[in-house]
Design a protein that fits this description.
The relative contact order is 0.05. The chain is 61% helix and 9% strand.
Length: 704
Amino acid sequence: MKKEKCLNIGLDAYKNSNYKKAIKYFTKLIEEFYNSIDVLKLSEIYNNRGLAKYSIAYNNKFTDEEKNYNRIKKLYKEAIEDFDKAIELYKKFIDSSNCNENYKYDLAVIYNSKGRANYDIYNYKEAIEDFNNAIDLFYNGKYIENPNEYTNLYITDLAMAYNIRGFSKYDILKNKEITKEYNGEITKLYNETINDLNKAIELYNVYCPDNQYLPITYTKTGQIKLDLEIYEEAIIDFDKAIELYNSKYIENPNEYTNLYITDLAMAYNSRGLCKYYLKIYEEAINDFDIAINFVDNLTIAYNNRGLSKYHLERYEEAINDFNIVINLYENSNKNLKYYINLDNELYESYNNRGLIKYELGDYRGAIDDLMKVIEFNPNSSITYNNLGIIFRAKKDYASSNLYFDKSIEIDKNIFAYVNRGINYRILKEHNEAKKYYDIVLNNKEYINFSYKLFYCIYRLYSENGINETEYKKYTEQIIIDDLSRKDHYLDIKNNNYRLYNYTKINKNTIRTILNEELWLSHVNNFNDPIDPAIKILNEKNNNIFQYLIDLIAIGCISLTNDNFLMWSHYADKHEGICIEYDLYDFINNPISNVILKKVDYVEKIINDRNAILTDKYNNQYRLTDILSVKSKEWEYEKEYRIIKYCINMNNTIKLPIKKIYFGAKTSKEDKELLIKMFGFKGIRFFQISFDDIIINKLNSTLYI
């Protein structure tokens, strides 16, 4: 057979998705005509054979059988070898020719294909290198100089390089073994990943908004922000992904594959998880419901929904969700142990169901569930810790200690150290308890449950296990460490870094404006007998928080300047003012012993539980949480609190003042006084007025 005919048969077979036939004829060309084919054409043949092998592997990669998986992986590797050969030959051709920029584009596309193959078999570092080469080649062309001259196909290929390079970096971040190699550069890798995905999104939106990869790129970007605990920003990305998925799915539901529908369901699940971490449990449950409606065996959504119901104390419903996960796995045809290695939902559901049984007093049932976890996952440190808690509840301290020790042996579980200390305190071995608490204090991860550690140390102090000096030293370290953990403040950034303080007009207010400060009130001086929550907790727990109450000062500020009730409550019945503060420098250049915390509007003040769930917050609270929670009925205030540990008794924070808003009933004399005193500072003045039509609506205009 002549080589031209052989080539045409191979190309036709490839175009018609008959990949096995294409491989056969491309192989025949290489074996029989290698020396008589020019370098460029030979590179194309290797590339086409690689694409045919890749297509077979990709179309069959979602296989459950280990034998088939190994065969598919082998095919991917053969495709990568073909791409390597194609690249080698293409470079040889470029080096020997005066070729135009289009040839660089063709070489970049081969690197793209190789990168995708490496990505599919989890060779993430190799994939990143391939996409680096592709992007360099794309930009070494004339795209930067004349982007409008290039076709959508060119831009799509460039976007894909950014896209899957971002996916590769993201998957490295999800693999703890690989991330160990990056030492202290994890934050840098997160930023690089977000930058790659944002670049892909930018290119897709401008040049090819219907690209199939755009929804999943939004989803991945949201997932990274979820990992970084930037939940509000993550929700925005998931919203966009869901909008894109739904627009395509609703138009042509029969055209979309199960994989597409699963991606849509996972976007709902991830958005629900963000809401879960923001403690918006009902909204989270709604997202998990939708995810399950799309994919009725989506175990991760059942597990997450169960956790949400657990926090709402809907225990029977939560147990039912965990039962569904367990039944789905146990009734499947998969080898259970093999499947566990792919997914954690089964043993997480056993763990979480067991903890509900523990809280309901069913210790035997709880132990049985947790032992099931150990059977599947003998290195589950959290599970050994939870078994220790249950045996402590049974007053079997010997068994309890053995389980805590096993948890510590596996991964130095910080919760197990705390619980070991609790056991020593119960057994009156105070020096040993102190040793374990010291270990915890040297691990900054404890900040996420600093409330519990503080309480444990207070109990040790109350039983004369440590003296007052030691107690105050421990307390000071805990509060200072807690104040060092900053948040992301998305809604403040979206508000141009502006927050507002409603206040009366008096000499303290005058001094505050003159010095451009925010006054912080000591906890004892709050008018509300149950705000902050630390006061009522202090009364109910033998004044354990009194030392903190005496040294903590709080400034209350809001995201809004036009709330009718806040003008009534805090600004002297609309006769006072509202001060606009600029928090840009405060947020971007944080100072020690001070934290800005968003108020959490809740049903219950604190519901501290011993047992550890499989979600990242693990039933734990920070000490500063009891300084920044209020009843849900105050949610309209949209309040933030600046919390300061006043070692030197200075009750103010320097904050630039940008504007002052006069209340609807502020007197003319007060207005003129403030303008006369502070007009020289560059502060702008505005007038609040009642709306003529809508009740309780306020308007603002520049005061002249």
